[in-house]
Write a structure and sequence with these properties.
The structure holds 2 protein chains of 2 kinds.
Chain A (H helix, E strand, L loop, with lengths): L2 E6 L2 H13 L4 E5 L5 H6 L6 H27 L14 H24 L20 E6 L5 H13 L4 E4 L1
Antiparallel strand pairs in A: 1-3, 1-4, 2-3
Helix pairs in contact in A: 3-4
Chain B lengths: L3 H4 L9 H13 L4 H28 L14 H25 L9 H22 L26 H34 L2 H10 L7 H34 L11 H28 L7 H31 L3 H12 L4 H13 L7 H4 L2 H28 L14 H24 L5 H14 L3 H13 L1
Classes of the chains: A alpha+beta, B mainly alpha.
Chain lengths: 167, 468
């Protein structure tokens, strides 16, 4: 699969290109940057469902830890500790810690699954300087009409791409 | 948002993104300097003797090898445990509080602080583990199900909360640290060859900075940070209830949870500063860890030192105001002028008095002063834990019970062993892992350039000023 690659080393130029690409409704495959560029994510409306999922993990955590404590201390083996109630006010301490642990682990696994990351995976794409100081716009050539390709190349040139390449 | 006028420039020397990568990775791409080998050898020997000989000795012969006795059942082990946990708080406090409060000056320090947390909490975890005496029985602490007598562990006990809190804290801190490093591991992977590339290929999980991944990465880090922030407060509050739930005068205090949390942040921040002074000097990173950084941390340390000073005063006041003779004895006879006056006054000096020197700008910007003051704070914080653990237990309600405490050579070597473990961990970290978050530094560099006036703006402003 051949790809059109435009390499930038100035993020402001990349942002200018992004505006024009959005306007031209270009079928961009991906933009790869060595650090997060918030403006870029905003322009392309990149969203993630991780915060929402984390909230539900938290709800699951707090109810399951409470259920566990209630089962052990009230149903299965109610101890009489100086006549204090079995449904104890000390429960929230472990409920909080248990909730944090469950939410952290579940959120991190969600992140790995959604971002398709695992130990030993080879990077999906490689280009010199890509994780260092170069920003790269990737376009799948098979989805481009000849007209669109000329238009894209013009945008890349006008916005000062350092290099336009095909891989 | 980061305001340059308030903080000054956080990265000096007009660095390009490529410069940042090269500067930070220099420590691992060049040969290790001589001092690194010497320091590594010293810490490795400490670790080997402490953990390789004296810990097995404790386990095989029993806790009788320590200075603990019937009257002072918790000696150096719990002092060191609380001290290390306190230091371990800095990483998360530093990294996460500043992340959540959007303080951009965290970027060059957070990675080292988080690394410190992981090694300090590992060192801390050793003490309760061996203090049990028979570590193999720790199996029963975890609620794997009711044991053979149908009993569950006591979920009402602060000691059990400690087990869960510290395990959760270690897990969360380690995960937070690791996730933050993924993009930097990818940078190292792309720049290396052979075995190193293979190792970093495994470590970087195939990271590629696409937009979707960055969004998820940022969201995950903020969520982990948001969850870990109250955890920091919970963990040390729980450690403090180990004491305040006891009835001994000097332990039975409601002030303990906030007092412990603030104390932990105090010692942790100081340890971060000590390390950053050394790292900056050793790797000539003054463009990244600027005088402004030290200035900002020194201000926090001064503020926290004032809180500590107030807490010491409040303890004394309440001991007097309560009219309780046992409480008054501990503070008046024991701390202020009795057997334990020396550690008490040293603690006050190191923690409450000396850090006030940071009110002077000259001191806040002098690395030598900063280094020694923060070392002093860590000695002071160790003494504070000594003052909490030993004197109240040594002289309690019944004078007939009084028995003093003296640590043994085994106590001292186990402690030195954990210092060795911490040192070895930190040295390996600065040698093999990017010690500053490169991706965040680049983001910071971008923010700075965006704020700089363009040539046209600069000349327009200059002209306006001249006209006036």
């Amino acid at each position: 699969m051949s790809k059109l690659v435009a390499v930038y080393s100035d993020d402001n130029k990349l942002l200018q290109a992004a505006d024009q690409l959005i306007e031209a409704k270009a079928p961009i495959e991906e933009i790869i940057t060595p650090f997060v560029i918030e403006e870029l994510l905003e322009k392309f409306h990149v969203k993630s469902n991780i915060p929402l999922l984390a909230f539900f993990y938290g709800l699951f955590g707090v109810t399951s830890v409470f259920a566990g404590l209630y089962y052990t201390f009230v149903i299965d083996f109610p101890l009489n500790i100086g006549g204090k109630p079995n449904l104890s006010l000390t429960f929230p301490v472990l409920m909080f810690i248990g909730t944090v642990l469950i939410t952290v682990l579940a959120t991190v696994f969600t992140f790995f699954i959604e971002a398709k990351l695992y130990p030993g995976k080879d990077p999906e794409f490689s280009y010199p300087g890509i994780n260092d100081d170069k920003m790269v716009v990737l376009v799948d050539k098979s989805k481009l009409t000849p007209d669109m390709e000329t238009k894209l190349r013009r945008i890349f040139e006008e916005t000062g791409a350092e290099k336009i390449d095909e891989v | 948002m980061y305001k340059k006028e308030v903080r000054g420039e956080l990265i000096l020397g007009n660095k390009s993104y490529g410069d940042i990568t090269r500067d930070i990775l220099r420590s691992q791409e060049e040969k290790a300097p001589m001092w690194w080998w010497i320091a590594f050898a010293v810490f490795f020997v400490l670790m080997s003797i402490g953990l390789g000989y004296y810990v097995p000795l404790t386990i095989s012969k029993g806790i009788g090898m320590w200075g603990n006795n019937n009257q002072v059942p918790w000696g150096w082990a719990i002092i060191n445990f609380v001290w290390w946990i306190g230091i371990g708080h800095a990483g998360t406090a530093f990294s996460i509080f500043l992340l959540v409060f959007r303080q951009k000056w965290r970027t060059s320090i957070n990675r080292a602080a988080e690394a410190m947390t992981v090694f300090a909490v590992l060192a801390a975890g050793l003490f309760p583990a061996i203090h049990v005496g028979r570590p193999w029985d720790e199996f029963f602490i975890f609620p794997y199900g009711p044991n053979s007598r149908g009993l569950w562990v006591n979920f009402n006990s602060p000691l059990l909360w400690d087990v869960f809190a510290i395990t959760t804290y270690l897990t969360t801190s380690a995960i937070f640290w690791y996730i933050g490093m993924l993009p930097d591991f990818a940078t190292v992977r792309d720049r290396s060859q052979g075995l190193k590339r293979k190792i970093f290929n495994v470590l970087s999980f195939g990271w590629l900075g696409s937009m979707d991944k960055w969004r998820k990465f940022e969201d995950t880090l903020v969520i982990l940070g948001g969850l870990a922030m109250p955890l920091v407060i919970a963990v040390h509050s729980i450690v403090s209830t180990d004491f305040s739930a006891g009835i001994l005068p000097g332990w039975h205090e409601t002030i303990f949870p906030p007092f412990f949390v603030v104390g932990a942040i105090f010692s942790g921040f100081s340890m971060v500063v000590t390390l950053m002074v050394l790292i900056r000097k050793a790797f000539k990173l003054q463009d990244y860890v600027t005088d402004d950084h030290f200035d900002a941390i020194a201000r926090i340390i001064t503020f926290v030192s004032l809180i500590m000073g107030s807490a010491y005063l409040i303890e004394l006041f309440i001991a007097w105001y309560s009219g309780n003779q046992y409480e008054a004895y501990v503070f008046d006879e024991n701390y202020l002028k009795g057997h334990y006056a020396l550690p008490y006054w040293l603690m006050l000096t190191f923690n409450a008095f000396i850090p006030q020197l940071f009110w002077f700008k000259k001191v806040r910007r002098n690395l030598t002063w900063i280094f020694w003051i923060t070392i002093g704070v860590n000695i002071g914080m160790w003494l504070e834990r000594y003052n909490i653990v030993v004197p109240p237990a040594a002289e309690d309600f019944l004078p007939a019970n009084w028995f003093h405490y003296a640590s043994t050579i085994v106590d001292k070597w186990v402690y030195l062993g954990t210092i060795g473990l911490f040192g070895v961990g930190v040295l390996l970290f600065i040698r093999f892992i990017p010690m500053m978050a490169m991706n965040e530094l680049k983001q910071q560099a971008k923010r700075q350039t965006d704020l700089k006036p363009t040539d046209i703006q600069y000349h327009a402003i200059k002209k306006l000023l001249e006209d006036e």
